[in-house]
Amino acid sequence: MSGDFALWVYLSRTPLLWLTVTLLAYAVADRFFQAAGRHPAANPVIHSVWMIGLVLLVTGTPYPTYFQGAQFVHFLLGPATVALAVPLYERRETVMRALLPMGAALVVGCVTAMGSALVFARLAGIPYDVMLAMAPKSVTTGVAMGIVEALGGDPTLAAVLVMMTGMAGALIVTPLMRLLRIEDMRARGFAAGLAAHGLGTARAFQVSEVAGTFAGIAMGLNAFLTAVLVPVAVSFLR
Amino acid sequence: MIVSFTAILLAQLLGEALARAVGMPVPGPVIGMALFLAFLTLRDRWRQASARLLPPPLVDGGVENAAKGLLAHLSIMFVPAAVGIVGKLDVLASHGVALAIVLCLSVTLTLAATVLTFVAVSRLIARRDASRT
């Protein structure tokens, strides 16, 4: 028994274990996603998260230890963001023709994302510090953490809320678009990227490359506009 | 593969450096994306010169394939950050239900407002263009 324990102590400290767990959980979740006919409720991110979370809770592994292994996957987010330039470049004509709708949707979407979060949070009696971390919930993690930190909030909590928003958005977007009878893939993708940042973009790429391209643009633009507008919105709260 | 990846990382590195130097609120990778876009545009504008000067993967579609390969696996890259939720279970325990409801409502409203604005404006433009011709 003590031999097994020593092995566990050794393995749980190497990045190898948690990197493998991350890939394994995703492989299982993705298999399930494919088997379920790529149904939005079978979103592989959501299902890998609870599986890994359960393993961490059961083994009593702190998140920083897990992240030492998982950071290699996390690191790829940066290069993947740069890679968004390729579909954007290949579809530049489609994009240039949609500048006006994109601009209008950006402003309306950005204000709705922040305003609705703050108004609903106040109605639900959520405390001020949590509300502060919630304001930039629709933008990509790094930016949201930066904004909240600059305002004196809790950046880790902001990251968690951003992730929850992303997962909710990835889950809701397809059924909602069907309900609204929107068939324009540019509009669907743009909304997904604006409301649910990278997770929305990943979901959009699962549906169509046009949607994914527009989601990537929306994610980038919204990061910029939200960074400018959140301090203004939060000043209304005091 | 190595050359393509180097080009992508280089764009990110430059973006990161620019973001820090100027103190922009935009993250480095997003600026990297803009730089990479500029690179692709310039490459195709001076096609002959780039074919002569740049390493082959940057002109023969290799870098495009590398980029698309990365994007095909975009979902898994969010898993490590999303697992961070387990570190905040205390906040979620005290406000979990309210938070989940607020986030879901807000994200639904945002999706609907954005998509409807996009569709409305593009229809408006299409109608204006149609009446003009």
Helix residue percentage of chain B = over 70%
Q: Quick one: overall form of chain B? A: flat
Stretches with pLDDT under 50, minimum 5 residues of chain B: none
Secondary-structure element sequence of chain A? HHHHHHHHHHHHH
- Percentage of β-strand residues of chain B: under 5%
Biggest sheet of chain B, in brief?
A: none
The major pleated sheet of chain A works out as: none
Number of helices of chain A: 13
Report the principal-axis shape of chain A: globular
Mean pLDDT rating of chain A: 88
How many structural domains does the protein architecture of chain A include? Answer: 1
Distance between the termini of chain B: 49 Å
Could you characterize what this model shows?
The complex is a heterodimer of chains A (238) and B (133). Chain A is mainly α. Chain A has one domain. Chain A has helices spanning 2-13, 15-35, 44-59, 63-75, 77-83, 85-90, 92-97, 99-123, 128-134, 141-150, 155-179, 185-207, 209-235. The longest helix of chain A is centred in the last third of the chain and has 27 residues, at 209-235. In chain A, 51% of the residues are buried. The mean pLDDT of chain A is 88. Chain B is mainly alpha-helical and 133 residues long. Chain B folds into two domains: 1-80, no CATH class; 88-132. In chain B, helix 1 (2-22) crosses helix 2 and helix 1 (2-22) packs across helix 4 (62-72). Chain B is flat and about 60 Å long. Classes of the chains: A mainly alpha (238), B mainly alpha (133). Chains A and B meet through helix 2, helix 3, helix 4, helix 5 and helix 6 of A and helix 1, helix 2, helix 4, helix 5 and helix 6 of B.
